[in-house]
Amino acid sequence: MFNEVDKSYPIELVADFLGINSRTLYYYEKFHLVCPLRRGRKRYYSKEDINWLEYVRELMYEQGMNLRSIIILIKRRDAVILDRCPEDVVLCYKNYLARKENGNKTME
Amino acid sequence: MFNEVDKSYPIELVADFLGINSRTLYYYEKFHLVCPLRRGRKRYYSKEDINWLEYVRELMYEQGMNLRSIIILIKRRDAVILDRCPEDVVLCYKNYLARKENGNKTME
DNA sequence: AATATAATTTACATTTAAGTGAAAAATATT
DNA sequence: AATATTTTTCACTTAAATGTAAATTATATT
After folding, report:
1. Which of B52, B58, B89, B105 is the most exposed place for a label (fewest CB within 10 A)?
2. Domain total for chain B?
3. Is A76 near chain B, with CB under 8 Å?
C-alpha cells in the first residue's frame, strides 16, 4: 500500500505504535530529531520515520544515550546513525543550521 | 619532566586544574571513563588523562552529550572519540566488558 | 456563523542521570 | 598512637526527558 517514505501516519497512531506519549514526539521535533509532513497543522509520519524513532528509543532506553548526543552524531555524519536516519531528517537539520547561521535570531 | 602518558598527578591536582570536584572523578571512574594508576589506594593521572577529561567536559557541557553516549562511542570505536581517548581507557573498558561477559556477577 | 471535534501548544509534575557535600572508613605520616 | 589524607558511602540537588492535563487553535459539521 504505502512505501517507506510516504508520510501518511498521524501522530497518535505513531505514538501508540511506539508506546510513547505524542507529547514526546512534539518534543523530539523541537530538537529536529524527526521531520513529519505538515498538511495544514496536522503531522504525518512515514514508515521510515517510525523505524528511525524506534532506533532512537533503543539508543536512549537500552543504551542510555541522550537526545543531544544523537543530534551531534547526525551533525557529525556518524556512519552508524546515518545508516538509520531518514535522509529528510538530515536535510531538515542542515537547513535549520543554515538558517541559524545566517543570523536568524527569531528562531529557536 | 614528565611525558604524556606517565601517571603522576594526584586526584586533587587534576580536579583543581579542571575546576571540578574530585568526587566527580571518582564518579567518572565508576563508568570507566578514566583509568588512573593505583599505587596503594592512591590515584595518579597522566597529562593525556587530563587532556581527555578536558575533552569529555567539553562534550558534556558545550555540546550536551551525556556520560553513557561517550562510553558507547568508545565501545563503538568512534574515530573522533578514539582520537582523543587514551589507549589505556579503551583497554580497561574492553577488559571490564570481557570480565562481565564471563559471567562475573560480583562486579558492577 | 456557531458549535463540535480534534490536534496542538503550554504549563506543571514526575522521574532519573549527573554532580556534590559531609560523614565514615581506610590508609599513610609524624 | 595521634593526626592528616584519601577514599568510600549516603543523601541531597539540579536539570533533562517525558507524562498529565488544561488551554488554545484549527477544521469540520450542522
Report:
1. B105
2. 1
3. yes
Contact A65 B68 (CB under 8 A): yes
Q: Residue A30 sits in a domain of what CATH number?
A: 1.10.1660.10
How much is the pLDDT for B100? 80
Using a pLDDT cut of 90, give the percent of chain A over it.
71
Closest Cα in chain A to B76? A80
Report the alpha-carbon distance of residue B34 to residue A68 in Å, rounded.
22
* Structural domain includes residue B87: yes
Question: Which chain D positions come under 7 Å from a protein C-beta?
Answer: 6-9, 16-21, 26-27
Beta-carbon contacts of A85 under 8 Å, excluding residues fewer than 6 positions away, are: A52, A74
Residue B86 belongs to a domain: yes
Is A108 within a domain?
no
A65 close to B (CB below 8 A): yes
The answer as to whether A107 is a domain residue is no
Identify the domain containing residue A66 by its residue range.
9-101
Q: Is A72 within 8 Å of B66 when comparing Cβ atoms?
A: no
Q: Nearest-CA neighbor of A4 among A92, A88, A81? A: A88
Q: What does B39-65 look like in DSSP terms, one character per residue?
A: ETTEEEE-HHHHHHHHHHHIIIIIS--
Contact B50, A47 (CB under 8 A): no
A4 — pLDDT class (breaks 50, 70, 90): confident
pLDDT in tens, B82-103: 999 999 999 999 998 898 877 6
